[in-house]
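Notes from the 1:1 (GR / supervisor)

We went over the backlog. Supervisor wanted to see one worked example end to end before approving the batch request, so GR pasted a single chain during the call. The sequence is below; no edits were made to it. Supervisor asked that the structure be written out right there so they could see what the output format looks like.
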Amino acid sequence: MTEHLCTAGSRVDRWMHRQVCLAVGAVTVGATLGLLGCSHDEKKASTEPSVPPASSIALPPRSTASLPAPDALVAVLSRLADPAVAGADKAILVEGATPETVAALDRFTAAARDDGYLPMSFAANNIAWSDVNAWDVMATIVVTTANADNREFTFPMEFTPRQGGWQLSRRTAEMLLVFSRSSSPGPRPTPAPAPNSEFTLAPTPTPTP
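Structure output shown during the call:
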């Protein structure tokens, strides 16, 4: 088909003809790649072994894996929100944690404590495989706090597997830590010192001799 278009008569404009040739050629290449290595040449197909995609070699089918139990995800969040656990000991619960992450976790817990959100409890619902990263899971997390003004709220959170357990994905951790910084009140302004009568009274005039 490509050859036929490329040999069209002189009535076809040369520029348009070239664009059609390129377009058809691109479609032909795409269709060929879409066959996943299959060839119409039986001799070539019989002599060259078929190689499965690299992803099928590296990982088993996801359908053989089990979704985590809600308690497994709740345990991750409960430890992250525990003020008795140092940030350095929480790093293993966050994907790709860095020293900056550790410091941010400590600030997060301190802010939650100071603003009256602790203790927190969690519930994990609607656990499903992530549409973005094949081996991650998404869950709807219901957070219940001790703050009467913000008793309960819901977040979609992503978790990633690690050594037989689970940890908070880097994307979700960054979202939560940024949210905590934006929602935390800024430092209170230092109040002005109370006026001192020693400095506000007019000086007593010195009598002249």
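Supervisor's comment: The chain is about 40% helix and 15% strand.
Batch request approved.
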